[in-house]
Design brief:
By secondary structure, this protein is an alpha/beta fold. It has one domain: Aldolase class I (TIM Barrel). Helix content is about 30%, strand content about 20%. It is built from 7 helices and 11 strands. The protein has a 6-stranded mixed beta sheet with strand order 3-4-5-6-7-8, covered by helices on one side. The longest helix is centred in the last third of the chain and has 18 residues. The N and C termini lie far apart (about 40 Å). About 35% of the residues are buried.
Length: about 280
């Protein structure tokens, strides 16, 4: 069966053939580190009540210098073990029937294709809008297209430097950097995501430098992403660093015609987790 759906002025055709891997045991602990109710605080669906599903494990090891390490380093640099089952996901939606959105984040959710696919089935059955936040390192085909792909590829300003010390006390060496760079810019995977899934936005992290801005803009043009689908996000992993960056991103977006997105969960709760 083929289904047509419209995204802006583009009509996409999706062939509904259930062929992808799924979760077989709903009582088995999955690579889900956090599961909680919150409000979407980034991107084009800002402000909407949602359930956050945070996976553990990542292809990247992001370090933004003065902007700090990845704000979810406990899923990537020092990944903690999963703690939730698929039954836990069902229960949190049963307990919060007013919430009709899901944010799948990480880490790198695309490292877990069976989980991603199972969540699209769950979202389809319950009429839930699902967003996946991804650095774009891998394309995952799902039985039901994802509503929104939140693309946040990591540019050269995310590469760790030799001698830096991680939050867990590890000293960065060349092997650590090579792991980060191995899948850092997968343009083909990003093109596949845009073509296959329902909608997307481009959410680059900007560190305030002209060099980083030029890299973001070059990549945006290469992918053919319009400015109205671009949400520039400030680098920073604490309330203090973000507040310092906000005026710079504000002015940048006003001057160049991008959308601005904050990271308001950090502004509201600083470094607290599961908020």
């Amino acid at each position: 069966m083929y289904i047509k759906y419209n995204v802006g002025n583009i009509t996409k055709i999706w062939q509904n053939i259930m062929v992808n891997k799924r979760i077989k045991h709903y009582d088995k602990v999955l690579p889900i580190l956090e599961l909680y109710r919150c409000v979407q605080s980034e991107g084009s669906r800002f402000g909407r009540p949602t359930i956050a599903v945070r996976t553990t494990g990542c292809t990247h090891r992001c370090y933004f210098g003065e902007g700090g390490w990845c704000d979810s380093w406990y899923t990537s640099i020092h990944p903690e073990k999963g703690a939730f089952t698929f039954n836990d996901i069902i229960k949190i939606y049963d307990d919060n029937p007013h919430v009709k959105e899901m944010m799948l984040t990480g880490g790198s959710p695309t490292m877990h294709p069976a989980l991603v696919n199972e969540l699209t089935h769950f979202a389809h059955e319950r009429d839930i809008i699902i967003t996946i936040e991804t650095e774009g390192s891998a394309f995952v085909e799902t039985d039901y297209p994802i509503d929104l792909i939140s693309l946040s590829p990591k540019f050269s300003n995310s590469v760790p430097v030799i001698g830096a010390v991680t939050p867990g006390g590890k000293v960065v060496d060349q092997k650590f950097i090579d792991i980060h760079n191995r899948k850092r810019m997968n343009t083909e995977a990003i093109r596949q995501m845009i073509a296959f899934h329902k909608d997307y936005h481009f959410k680059p992290v900007w560190d305030g430098t002209q060099e980083n801005l030029e890299e973001i803009e070059t990549y945006r043009i290469e992918l053919g992403i319009p400015k109205n689908k671009t949400y520039v996000m400030p680098a920073g992993d604490t309330r203090e660093t973000l507040i310092e960056m906000y005026p710079k991103v504000f002015d940048l977006c006003a001057e160049h015609g991008y959308n601005m997105t904050g990271r308001d969960h950090i502004i509201a709760f600083d470094t607290q987790r599961m908020v």
